[in-house]
Amino acid sequence: xxxxxxxxxxxxxxxxxxxxxxxxxxxxxxxxxxxxxxxxxxxxxxxxxxxxxxxxxxxxxxxxxxxxxxxxxxxxxxxxxxxxxxxxxxxxxxxxxxxxxxxxxxxxxxxxxxxxxxxxxxxxxxxxxxxxxxxxxxxxxxxxxxxxxxxxxxxxxxxxxxxxxxxxxxxxxxxxxxxxxxxxxxxxxxxxxxxxxxxxxxxxxxxxxxxxxxxxxxxxxxxxxxxxxxxxxxxxxxxxxxxxxxxxxxxxxxxxxxxxxxxxxxxxxxxxxxxxxxxxxxxxxxxxxxxxxxxxxxxxxxxxxxxxxxxxxxxxxxxxxxxxxxxxxxxxxxxxxxxxxxxxxxxxxxxxxxxxxxxxxxxxxxxxxxxxxxxxxxxxxxxxxxxxxxxxxxxxxxxxxxxxxxxxxxxxxxxxxxxxxxxxxxx
Length: 427
Prior knowledge:
Elements: E1 18-19, E2 21-27, H1 42-51, H2 57-60, H3 73-89, E3 93-106, E4 113-121, E5 125-126, E6 135-136, H4 143-156, E7 158-159, E8 163-167, H5 180-194, E9 200-203, E10 209-215, H6 219-228, E11 233-237, H7 239-247, E12 252-258, E13 264-266, E14 269-272, H8 279-288, E15 292-296, E16 309-313, E17 316-321, H9 334-346, E18 356-359, H10 365-373, E19 379-382, H11 388-396, E20 407-409, E21 417-420
């Protein structure tokens, strides 16, 4: 494998919370996968593993493999360990030391997205305004999912999927470019352009091409690390994985550092498989809480802007304007109002209730409507996407986003770059 920028190690001229991967395993092809939490239906995971048993998904979700159905995640961990060992042995991955990895995602008609695979200091994670740190975690999480990620890292001794961090450029240290996020974007674009043929490419389910280039020690690596760490990093995707690094006492976690110019936020909708009351009663409770409800003709669609959500049930769509409360900006985001007024107050459902499915932007409104029409769900809630500007503003204020409120695209692919943990790291 060709490693770009190999040469004598050069001490970084900037202190940074972003570091090379001490021992990486780089795909040689065929292992890329959607992240374990990108699916609305577990059966999709099983089918992907059935079709491509070499996919990293078979390691990340071992209990969803066809031969493991019915077994628990914990009971299936030995299978994950064996699959990773086999992938290394058969040449699906090749090792590299003290590297960062350039990452580019392209698709027809879209501007390229850029990122950098690297390791980030776990002790820099901040979850509130009074907690110091340059890595901002911004969403409520489901602790059961976090515990699974901790157990997987401990069992395999590797991190297989990265946390996606958005470099905001805010609070850049003295000496860093004033437009650090833009500078990182330009540097990543220039580095990939000059790097030659990629080490590997991977095609995802949406037709995007994911390409990676390995960069060893040297001036180029130093520059990229300094720019990647020049400012606050917001967790755009991977809140569970970042908390797993903390609970697992890992000093560093695997990340892809990207830029605002490389991402967009798509809708993050909800399906409810079973209502706890009749449709008329649900609508009546919402009206009683102060909601304005109007029937909608034509095919249901995700609202273009916030302020109104769309409910689809019993063959009819309704535009619902939920009343704002006395709380601040975050408490009155559409996703927070849906969680509080529709799911909790009107239906009596906790956000982690198994009857609620959180459906990301890869699934169109027609898919959610089809689930209701087919009887596999009784309610679809369509919510306008949060804007990137609003997302960054909320996070820089150290406020916490509602659960499952931001579906960033394009998403970083799992299984392209693995980080091997030192024995002292995985404990």
